[in-house]
Automatic annotation (TrEMBL):
NCBIfam families: exoDNase_III, xth. The record marks H248 as: Interaction with DNA substrate. It comes from Sphingomonas paeninsulae. Probably binds two magnesium or manganese ions per subunit. The gene is xth. This is Exodeoxyribonuclease III. InterPro entries: AP_endonuc_1, Endo/exonu/phosph_ase_sf, Endo/exonuclease/phosphatase, ExoIII-like.
Length: 257
C-alpha cells in the first residue's frame, strides 16, 4: 500500500501537475494540503476521472485538506480537531482506507513569531497530540501525513542560519514535534533514510530550487502497527522542477500487507 502526502499549494492552479503525478506514480492514498478551495469548488469530477475517490475539508482561498483513495472512497472518521469550537481553519481530516487510519494534516505556519500566529501554531499542535494519543489507544495501523510546518533538526535544512528567525525552526516548534514523536510515532522518512539530507520544500524565492536550498517539513508519522509494516519511503522531488509546480514535492511510504 503506497501512501503519499502532497501540499499542492492551490489545487485548482496545480490540478494538471496533481493529475500528472497521480497517473505516473499511482499512490493508493494521497493526502493533500493547502487546497485553497471551498468545498463547492473542489475538482471532484477531475479527481474521480483519474480513478480516485475523495473526501475533502475546504476553505476558500486558504488552508484545506483532502484524502484521495485509488478505486475507492475513503471512509471519513473526523473533520477538524476537537476542543476549540472557534477554530475555523480547515487543517485536519481523518479517514480509514483498507483498514489503515489516515489523516491529512496542515499544521499552522506560525509566522511571524513571536505573536498570536505562533501561539496558535503551538496550541494547534497540542490539540493534534491529544487526538494522536487517542488514535494510539485504538492499536490500529495509523498514518498521520501532511505538512507539519516544522523542520525537526538542523540536519533537515540546507542552511540553519538562513531560517533561524522562522517559526518552522524555533525551539518551541521542535520541542512540540519531539513530544509528539515521543508519544509513539515513527518518522517514516527519517527511519528509512537516517543519514540522508532529503528536502520536501523549496521556496519560490531566492532561486531555492536550482540551488537545492530546501528543507523537510512534510512528514508521514506512523503508529507502531504501521511502522511494523513500513517498506520504503521517499520524495518525488522531480515534480518540484516541473512547470507551474507546487513549492512542495510529494512524499510517500509503502506499507507491507
Amino acid at each position: 500500500m503506497k501512501i503519499a502526502t502532497y501540499n499542492v499549494n492551490g489545487i485548482k492552479a496545480r490540478l494538471p501537475r496533481l493529475l500528472e503525478w497521480l497517473e505516473e506514480t499511482k499512490p493508493d492514498v494521497a493526502c493533500l494540503q493547502e487546497l485553497k478551495s471551498s468545498d463547492e469548488t473542489f475538482p471532484e469530477a477531475d479527481i474521480r476521472a483519474a480513478g480516485y475517490g475523495a473526501i475533502w475539508h475546504g476553505q476558500k482561498g486558504f488552508n484545506g485538506v483532502a484524502i484521495l483513495a485509488r478505486g475507492d472512497d475513503p471512509i471519513e472518521r473526523l473533520r477538524g480537531l476537537p476542543d476549540d469550537p472557534d477554530d475555523t481553519h480547515s487543517r485536519y481530516l481523518e479517514a480509514e482506507v483498507d483498514g489503515v487510519v489516515i489523516a491529512s494534516i496542515y499544521l499552522p505556519n506560525g509566522n511571524p513569531q513571536p505573536g498570536p500566529k505562533f501561539d496558535y501554531k503551538l496550541k494547534w499542535f497540542d490539540r493534534l497530540m491529544d487526538r494522536a494519543a487517542l488514535l494510539l489507544e485504538e492499536e490500529k495501523p495509523t498514518v498521520l501525513a501532511g505538512d507539519y510546518n516544522v523542520v525537526p533538526t538542523d540536519d533537515d535544512i540546507w542552511s540553519p542560519r538562513g531560517l533561524q528567525g522562522d517559526a518552522l525552526v524555533q525551539p518551541e516548534s521542535r520541542a512540540a514535534f519531539r513530544r509528539f514523536s515521543a508519544q509513539g510515532w515513527t518518522d517514516a522518512l527519517n527511519a528509512r533514510h537516517p543519514n540522508e539530507k532529503l528536502w520536501t520544500f523549496w521556496d519560490y524565492q531566492m532561486n531555492a530550487w536550482p540551488r537545492d536550498a530546501g528543507f523537510r517539513i512534510d512528514h508521514l508519522m506512523l503508529s507502531a502497527e504501521a511502522a511494523d509494516r513500513l517498506g520504503d519511503a521517499g520524495v518525488d522531488r522531480d515534480y518540484r522542477g516541473r512547470e507551474k509546480a507546487s513549492d512542495h514535492a510529494p512524499t510517500w511510504i509503502t506499507l507491507r500487507p
